[in-house]
Amino acid sequence: MAKPNQPPLPSILIANDLLDGEVLFRTVSGWSPAVADALVAEDLATARQLEAEAAAATRRQEVVDAYLVEIARDAAGRPVPTHYRERIKTLGPSHRPDLGKQAAEAPAAGR
Amino acid sequence: MYRYDEFDERFVRERVAQFRDQVARRLDGSLTEEEFKPLRLRNGVYLQLHAYMLRIAVPYGTLSGRQLRQLALIAERYDRGYGHFTTRQNIQFNWPKLRDVPAILDLLADVEMHCIQTSGNCIRNVTADHFAGVAADEVEDPRPTAELIRQWSTNHPEFCYLPRKFKVAVTGAEEDRAAIGVHDVGLRLLRHPETGALGYRVLVGGGLGRTPIVGKVVREFLPKAELLAYLEAVMRVYNAEGRRDNKYKARVKILVHELGEEEFARRVEAEFAQLDGPSINADPEEVARIAAYFAPPAYESLPARSARLEAAKATNPALAGFVTTNVFPHRVPGYAAVTVSLKLIGGAPGDATAEQMRAVADLAERYSFDELRVSHHQNLVLPHVRQDDLPAVFAALAAAGLATANVGLVTDIIACPGLDYCALATARSIPIAQSVAERFRDPVRQQEIGPLNIKISGCINACGHHHVGHIGILGLEKNGIENYQITLGGDASEKTALGERLGPGIAAEEVPEAIERLVEVYLAARGAGESFIDTTRRIGLEPFKAAFQSFARKEVQDAAA
C-alpha cells in the first residue's frame, strides 16, 4: 500500500475521456483506451510525472477524474490493477462480458 | 396522465437549450470540470466507472407507451440497447456520451420528459405508490399530490441549494407500497377520523444511507389544501438549520434526530403560523386542473370474475402461476394490475432492453389505457388490464421473455447497480443478486417460501434499500476483498423497520448458502400461512443469528484449514 501523499508503485494513470466518458490510460505520448498501452511508473519520479500530467490533462479539458492506480503485471507482462474496483474499471461490468473494454478484447484474444 | 401546459413545455425546452450551451462551453474549455459538475448534476448527468450516466425522471413512476418507446429509441441510438429502472422509479442509461446528452434531452422533451431533479441538493423527483389509482385500499390517488409538489418544487428559488438532497414519497393507501417511512418527507393521504375530510399524515426525517432512521410523524392530520405551505415550513426549517458543515450529517433526518421530533415539529408549526398560507397553497382551480389529468380511464362495466380467465387458467398452469404472483387486484370489477417483473433469472435487476421496452409499451397501449408504471421494486406495471385480456397479455409477455412469475418472492430482488457501474460503490451488487436468484430459481420452491424481499446495496448509501429488506445485503470492502453484511427483519411497508446485522461479513460466494440457512430457519419455524417477515417478528432474531453465525464460523474455519 502507498504511504500517505506517496503515489502507489508500480502504477498507471487512469482517467475518463471528457467527451465520451471512456476509460483511458496514459501512455508515453498521450492517451489510449487499452490498458496494455499504459505507461507504468516503476519509480517515484515517473509517478510524480504522471500526477503532474493528470493535472495538466484535466486543465486541458482532455479527461476527467484522472488518478494513479497501483498495478501488478500479469503473465504476459501487461499491467493489471491490484484493486478489484480498478480491475472492473479496466474491463467493464463483470456480469456483462459483452460490454466495456472486455468486449473488445475478448474476440481479439480468441482469434 | 399529466400533460405539459405551455409553461412546462417552455421550461423544459429552455433547460435543454441552457444545458446544450453549458456542454459546448465545457467542451471548448470555458468551463472547468469543477464549474461544470454542479450544472451537469442538475441535468441528471453523472460520471460513473466506465462512462457517463444519465438519470431520467419518471415523475411518480407514471409513463405512457409513447414515452417508453422514446426511452427504447434513446437506448438504441445513444446507449447500448438497454436501460436500468431504479429504486426511485427513474431510469438510468449507463453509456451516454457527454456530447450526445443535449440531443437525448431534446428527444425526452419531445415526449414531456427530462432529467431535472434527478440529482443534486434539491427536492428530488417525487415518488408514489405504483398502484396509485388501482388499489382498493386507497382514499385518493396520490399522483395529483405528487404532481403538485413537482410543480411547486421545480426550480423553487428558495430550495435550489439545500444542505443535501431531499426525497418525498406519497401514498394514498393503507398498505404502504411507496416506503414513505424512509423518505425525507413521507405523505399519507387519509380521511380525518371525525370530519371525514381529506388530509395528510406527514412524516419527516426518514432515510437510509449511512445513518438509517425511520421517519417521525410531525403532523397527524394536515388539511389537504394546506399542503404546500406546510411543506414550505418544513423546507424552511431544514434549509435554515440543516447542517452544511458535514455532508454526512446534512440530511433532514439528522436535524430531526438532533432537535428531537417534538422540537422539530414545534419549529415547523411556528414557521407555518408565520407563513401567508393563501399565497403559497395551490389555487383550488389549479389543484382541480391537475387532478383532472389523473381521472380514472373509461373502464367498462364488467363482472368481477372473468370466465375467460378462469377457463384459460384451468388449462394453462403457467398462466395460473403468473396470475397468482404478478397480478394485483384492481378496485374496478373485471380489471387487474399486472406487474412485469424485470427480475429475470440471470438478468440484472431492473434492466430492460429496448425490445422489451417496446413490448411493454405495446401492451400498455393495447390493454392498459396507454399507461404504465415503474415501481420502486424496479419492475414495470400495467395498471388497468381487463381480466379477460390477461391470457393474451401473459402470452405476449412470455414471447418477449418478460413473464417471470416472481413478484414479491425471493428472486424479486432489489439491487443497486453496485460496483459494476457505480463510482461510489464499494462492492458489486448485481452478481450477488444473480447468484441468489440462481440458487432459488425453482418456481415451485419460490412459491413454497412465499413473500420474501431481499434488497442489496453495493455501498452504505443504500440505493438498494438493504436496511428495509426482509433480508438485507450490504457490500463493503474488507482487506481488499468484497465482503457482504447480512441484515434481517427490515420492512419497507407501513410497518417500517430497519434490519439488524446477523454477524460478521461473508464472502460473495457464501451469500446464497447464507440466505439458504435463513430460509431453512423460517421454514422450520413458520406457523400456518405465516410469511417470512411475520415469523421473523414472532420468533425474533436469535434463531436466525445462531444459524447464520454457525455457518459464518464454519466458513472461516474451512478457509483457514
Keywords:
heterodimer, A: 111 residues, alpha+beta, 5-stranded antiparallel sheet, 3 helices, globular, disordered C terminus, B: 561 residues, Sulfite Reductase Hemoprotein, domain 1, Sulfite Reductase Hemoprotein, domain 2, 20 strands, 39% helix
Task: Provide an overview of this structure.
The complex is a heterodimer of chains A (111) and B (561). With 111 residues, chain A is an alpha+beta fold. Chain A has one domain. Chain A has three helices and five strands, in the order βββαββαα. In chain A, strand 1 and strand 2 form a beta hairpin. The longest helix of chain A is centred in the middle third of the chain and has 16 residues. Chain A is globular, with a radius of gyration of 14 Å. The C terminus of chain A is likely disordered. The model of chain B has no long low-confidence stretch (mean pLDDT 97). In chain B, strands 1-2-5-4-13 form a five-stranded antiparallel β-sheet. In chain B, strands 3-14-15-12-11 form a five-stranded antiparallel β-sheet. Chain B has a five-stranded mixed β-sheet with strand order 6-7-8-9-10. The longest helix of chain B has 22 residues. Chain B is α+β, with helices and mostly antiparallel strands and 561 residues long. Helices cover 39% and strands 16% of the residues of chain B. In chain B, a hairpin with a 5-residue loop joins strand 14 and strand 15. Chain B has four domains: 105 residues, Alpha-Beta Complex (Sulfite Reductase Hemoprotein, domain 2), CATH 3.90.480.20; 160 residues, 2-Layer Sandwich (Sulfite Reductase Hemoprotein, domain 1); 93 residues, Sulfite Reductase Hemoprotein, domain 2; 147 residues, 2-Layer Sandwich (Sulfite Reductase Hemoprotein, domain 1). At the A-B interface, helix 2 of A face helix 15 of B.
